[in-house]
Amino acid sequence: MGYPQLKRLIDIFLALCLAILFLPFWFIVPLVIWLESGLPIFFAHRRIGQDNSEFTMYKFRTMVRGADKLLRKNKRLFEEFKNGDWKLAKDPRITDLGRILRNLTIDEFPQLLNVLRGEMSIVGPRAYVTQEIKEQTKKYPKTKKWITRILSVKPGVTGPWQTSGRNVIPFDKRAELDFKYANSFNFWGDLKIILKTPKAMISKW
In angstroms, rounded to a whole number, what is the distance separating the alpha carbons of residues 155 and 31? Predict the structure, then answer.
């Protein structure tokens, strides 16, 4: 059995263990989101998976309802979003609770469902958005040659980007990290990333 096959078994085992370990969050977080800002509880977003296949990635909702529409209606904010490597330093759409969930990375927990469905892995590159790749490879031309290799592996709940600075890392550095991971991922490398993840989860707190 090669590592990719073993990795899938590890993914299923860890996803089930983590889902059970954090069982209280599956009840408490949805309740608090509902009390603060109503439904929906989850945020579903289309991302690019392995071999360029699209899938729906799940998170706990951390923004106001209709956040994407609000962003695109506000031209100034949308330009800041694109110029900031598809993120906002101070995003006004994030709720008070959402900021806490993001800082502790609790909003990512529903991605365990994506892992069990085989769309994601516990460890891998951060899942990309189609439009993000189109825009950012124009801004950073050298990254274009890396994308095919990056998309040859499953995106991860955690990975080199998530444990190396997250939002402070520009797109070209993120793509370089993901490219290096896709070229050399192995059990010990994945284990190292998993062990670094708890510290990364609370690094913004």
Answer: 29
CA dist 68 and 75 (Å) reads 12
The predicted model scores a pTM of: 0.90
**One pLDDT digit (tens) per residue for the chain, 205 residues:** 789 899 999 999 999 999 999 999 999 999 999 999 999 999 999 999 999 999 999 999 999 988 888 888 888 887 777 676 677 778 889 999 999 999 888 999 999 999 999 999 999 999 999 999 999 999 999 999 999 999 999 999 999 998 987 667 889 999 999 999 999 999 999 999 999 998 887 766 5
Q: What angle do CA 138, 132, 29 make, to 5 degrees?
A: 160
Domain coordinates of the chain in residue numbers? 3-61+106-200
